[in-house]
């Protein structure tokens, strides 16, 4: 009961022992519980079904004496209770009665209503209770662990990595961070692609981000994804450094409105997302083919084998890894186009990482997306643009 940092760590260890773990915490995100393999249930279901109850909640007006005569009466006979939260969350007089009646078979405590507890405390002296001093955070092991955690957090922040412990950023548990990491990278790169397709790069005021997922709305935390999309949209066209802390504020300052939409899919919810789509409204594009039927610049992508891929530009389906940089070409679909462009890039010693062609129909309009490891010079891009079948092209840096 209580599914914060300590509660989730206890859940991991219980899972490792082969236990079926349920949790009650009105503030715990469902995606965090899912990532560990824990089911969130109601308070009444918790106390009625648990064989072991481990307490990890703060002491508040809502949790004061939350375990009392009434709640003990609803528990399985023989339940074991561990309290490492706060002593006041249990009514100690009711606790002793539950122990004497055999409702609670055993208890382990390191917190008490009064600390240190009186020597004649019936709870402390009870044969079925194991007690230790409330000193866990002061042990050598705990102090060393905190020091290592702080050092790792600082190094990660300096490297620009996502942080699960930043107090002024979206608080996302480590398990969810790990699960979302490739999608976070995808969101940022889609934002970078989309804004570079805008003619002039500025004037972006309205952006819609659409997430396609088989998970329920409450099961998907999109704050990180929105922040990283914002980062991708703003950084290529400004000198502002955007991070998880200032993303929403920076967008508001620039008059950038970012709306979010979720498409609920059928199927397995094991993967948090199937795709992310970024649309920029009311702008002109330097690459006309990036305009979808809605009239917006549209790019869409998904994660494949842990790597972000671009899967759609405008109305054209493509499949290109979002690594390095990209050249988009719109051309008449005809034999030899891939070879012509590839030859020019090879002659300029530019390595092609991926190439994908999406087309309306054979011999009609097509869009070629080419992933390159190096940035082509102006002469190289000019030669590509001079190919007779190519109607427009653009180079975008990731």
TrEMBL record:
PANTHER family: D-3-PHOSPHOGLYCERATE DEHYDROGENASE 3, CHLOROPLASTIC (PTHR42938:SF5), FORMATE DEHYDROGENASE 1 (PTHR42938)
Subcellular locations according to the entry: Plastid, Chloroplast
Catalyzed reactions per annotation: (2R)-3-phosphoglycerate + NAD(+) = 3-phosphooxypyruvate + NADH + H(+)
Main localisation: plastid
Protein's name according to its UniProt entry: phosphoglycerate dehydrogenase
Broad EC category: oxidoreductase
GO molecular function per UniProt: NAD binding; phosphoglycerate dehydrogenase activity
InterPro entries: ACT-like_dom_sf (IPR045865), ACT_dom (IPR002912), ASB_dom_sf (IPR029009), D-isomer_DH_CS (IPR029753), D-isomer_DH_NAD-bd (IPR006140), NAD(P)-bd_dom_sf (IPR036291), PGDH_ASB_dom (IPR045626)
EC code(s) of this entry: 1.1.1.95
């Amino acid at each position: 009961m209580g599914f914060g940092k300590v509660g989730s760590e206890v859940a991991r260890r219980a899972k490792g022992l082969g236990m079926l773990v349920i949790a009650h915490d009105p503030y715990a995100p469902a995606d965090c519980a899912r990532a560990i393999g824990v089911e969130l249930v109601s308070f009444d279901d918790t106390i009625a079904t648990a064989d072991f109850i481990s307490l990890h909640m703060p002491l508040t007006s809502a949790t004061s004496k939350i375990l009392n005569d009434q709640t003990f009466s609803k528990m399985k006979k023989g339940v074991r209770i561990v309290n490492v939260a706060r002593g006041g969350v249990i009514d100690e007089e009711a606790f002793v009665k539950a122990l004497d009646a055999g409702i609670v078979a055993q208890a382990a405590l390191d917190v008490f209503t009064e600390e240190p507890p009186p020597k004649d405390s019936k709870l402390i002296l009870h044969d079925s209770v194991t007690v230790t001093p409330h000193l866990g955070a002061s042990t050598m092991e705990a102090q060393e662990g905190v020091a290592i955690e702080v050092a790792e957090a600082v190094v990660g922040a300096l490297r620009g990595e996502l942080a699960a412990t930043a107090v002024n950023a979206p608080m996302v548990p480590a398990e969810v961070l790990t699960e979302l990491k490739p999608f976070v990278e995808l969101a940022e790169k889609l934002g970078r692609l989309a804004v570079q397709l805008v003619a002039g790069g500025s004037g972006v005021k309205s952006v819609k981000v659409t997430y396609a997922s088989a998970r329920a709305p409450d099961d998907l935390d999109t704050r990180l994804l929105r922040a990283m999309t914002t980062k991708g949209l703003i950084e290529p066209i400004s000198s502002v450094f955007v991070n998880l802390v200032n993303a929403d504020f920076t967008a508001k300052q620039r008059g950038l409105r970012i709306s979010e939409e979720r498409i609920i899919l059928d199927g397995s919810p094991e993967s948090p997302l199937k795709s992310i789509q970024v649309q920029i409204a009311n702008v002109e594009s330097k690459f006309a083919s990036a305009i979808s039927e809605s009239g917006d610049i549209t790019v869409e992508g998904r994660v494949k084998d842990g790597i972000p891929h671009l899967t759609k530009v405008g109305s054209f389906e493509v499949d290109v890894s979002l690594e390095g940089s990209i050249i988009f070409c719109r051309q008449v679909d005809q034999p030899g186009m891939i070879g012509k462009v590839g030859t020019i890039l090879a002659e300029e010693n530019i390595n092609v990482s991926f190439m994908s062609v999406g087309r309306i129909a054979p011999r009609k309009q097509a869009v070629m997306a080419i992933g390159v490891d190096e940035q082509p010079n102006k002469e190289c891009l000019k030669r590509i643009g001079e190919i007779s079948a190519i109607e427009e092209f653009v180079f975008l840096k990731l």
